[in-house]
Amino acid sequence: MKLDSAQLTRELDEARERFARLSAAVAELRPYRGGSTPREAIWRSGTAALYHYPASAGAGEAPPLLVIYSLVNRPDILDFTPQRSVLASLRDAGHSVYLLDWGRPGPGDRHLSLDDYVDGLLYDAIEQIRQRHAGAAVSLFGVCQGGTLALCYAALYPEHVAKLVTLVTPVDFHAGNASLYHLAKYVDFDRFAAAYGTIPASVLNIAYVGLKPFRILSQRYVDMLDIAADPAALTDFMRMEQWMYDSPDQAGEAFRQFAKHFYQNNDLIHGRVRLAGRPVRLDRLDMPVLNVYAADDHLVPAPSALALGDHVPKRRYQAVEFPGGHLAVFVTRRAHTQLYPMVGQWLRGTKDT
Amino acid sequence: MDIADITATLERLYREGHKVLADFAEFANQPEGADSDALLERLHQQGERFFSDLRQQLQDQAQPWIAMLRAWAQLSDGASPAEILMTPMTWWRSSAEHDPANRESPRRARVEAVVAELAAARDAYLKLLQQAADGAVERFATMLRSPRQEQQNARQLYQDWLEAAETAYEEILDSEDFAAATGRLTNAWSELLLVLQDNLDGALSAAGLPTRRELSETQAQLHELRQQQRTRERQFRAELDALREHVANLTTAASPSRSRGKAKPAGTS
Q1: Which of A105, A326, B115, B252 has a C-alpha 20 to 30 A away from that of B268?
Q2: Which pLDDT belongs to residue B85?
Q3: What is the edge-to-edge ordering of all strands in the sheet holding A97-101?
Q4: Which pLDDT belongs to residue B28?
Q5: Which listed residue (A65, A99, A125, A144) is catalytic?
Q6: Residues with Cβ < 8 Å from A325, sequence gap 6 or more?
Q7: Nearest 10 degrees: CA dihedral of B13, B158, A229, A296?
Q8: A 100-129 residues with CB below 8 A of B?
């Protein structure tokens, strides 16, 4: 094939011009300072904080809803923009919404274990909510790794949980194209955690970027040139960019346990995870469970999430597929016009699937 | 998210954007009459440069630590605190290098074993990445030679290149060899850090300063105290709830007679 050098040069000039325009535009943007949905911190413990997003007036009698996010990223993605806010969508569906923000572990938190997260911080946060709601059971909305932690909690204390929603949540860590398991397979996490203490976010980001380096480091920036003249799209791009690399460090012990027992040994589906001195048994999840997974998720493959259906009582379990990848469930228009209204209705008991 | 975060984001955006533009230029800056073979050759060369730079970068990253460890390992076990503490600043000193007894010391042998494993693990990892890069160029060449590939649009060419690169990379990524190489490299880094920390702790201890291990033990004790406090708070809360329930039961049990008493004031029998 012969190449038309004149045309190629024209294209390169145009790309450079767009990049210059884009650089000028982003320099004018103001820093993004977190979510826009009004909230109030009602409890703090160590690095964690519990936020309340009050329901709109006349919301009704739905149980309070606690949103539990992953340890490996910040929950800001759940309140991405006023138009695309998972937390606002759930609140607008009539729930008194709470968010457990795990915070940012520092060097002194290296010994925090999964017991501390699930049977400590999560347990105490749920107690706080129950006290505010006359001892009522709380509905849980677990996101990604937060969904796995929510499953553990619900299996240990089913009497505290009214309903459970898991969103893009890994359950069978070896199912599907399990890239993260594959990368973790031969790592000695005992030595890894001993060497690092608190696991730097930068080390984990290398692993995540390493799963899709061309899409994340090249394709994203090529596509970025197409939005040079669209300020709204550019603002969203920058927010996503900030969020992607704004990961907290990880408490070494909890990270070691999760990597070893959940990823390497796949202990959750085999009933071998032990927390609070007891085995975590998914067959104890007798509350209604809604499992939302993304069809093309490269971090949590659909079969990994869908495995939940094989381990919980079938009677009150439902699964819903959402088109797109891992982030599609947070930021796409479709998620906010279709998925969250449906989840809200399911939580209020007015919709079966 | 503060101003420092957005500055870092902007820096990354400019850096990655420029990198993409430079990549893009590889496709767009074709001499008059050039054909796709010339482009493929340039991509091959670019890949070789990239991996040579990456190897150097990984070597440079570990080099200060390795130099420090080697210097420490040269000291005999009876070295004074001052000698140990000053060692990191005297990497160039090679007096003990030629001492056969010292070369065979267990400490030095451990350091050399860790360094050798890190180098071998790094080379095995890079070899697989190099295979992915070669596979990407081969795939791209096939795409260029396919009959449907007639367009000469730089953006399309670049998209095709990214697709070829991603597919070739994913083939390697999914292989058992890559999982083993990633584990080996990660484990080798962990060992280097652990040996470094052992040595650093030795130096700190010799100088009478708190070591990393002692700090970690203190943190563990603090953590245990917090757990104990949490358990006691929970026990206390449970006892309080039980007590409240007991009081409520007593109140309920007592209330009918009290209400009967109220209904029948004293002295009205």
Answers
A1: B252
A2: 60
A3: A40-45, A48-53, A97-101, A65-68, A138-143, A161-167, A289-294, A317-322
A4: 63
A5: A144
A6: A294, A296, A297, A298
A7: -80
A8: 108, 110-112, 116, 120, 124, 127
How distant, in Å, are the alpha carbons of A49, B74, B93, B97 from that of B89?
A: 45, 13, 9, 16
Is the model's pLDDT at B34 over the cut of 90? no
> Chain A closest CA to B230's CA: distance in Å?
8
Yes or no: say if A311 and A171 are a contact pair by the CB < 8 Å rule.
yes
Residue keyed to tokens 């990379």: B169
Terminal C-alpha separation, chain A: 53
Helix, strand or coil, per DSSP, at residue A48: strand
Q: What is the pLDDT of residues B90-122, one digit of tens each?
A: 544 444 444 555 556 787 888 899 999 999 999
Taking an 8 Å cut-off on Cβ atoms, the answer to whether A11 and B28 are in contact is yes
Look-up of token digits 């070893």:
A260
Distance from CA of B269 to the nearest CA of A (A): 43
Distance, in Å, from the CA atom of B213 to the CA atom of A318, rounded to the nearest integer, reads 49
Tokens 């329930």 locate to B245
The two tokens of residue B120 are 């071998």
Task: Give me the residue label for tokens 């509350």.
Answer: A287
Q: What's the pTM?
A: 0.86
Of the listed ranges A65-74, A146-155, A332-341, A342-351, the least confidently predicted one is A342-351
**pLDDT, tens only, A270-296:** 999 999 999 999 999 999 999 999 999
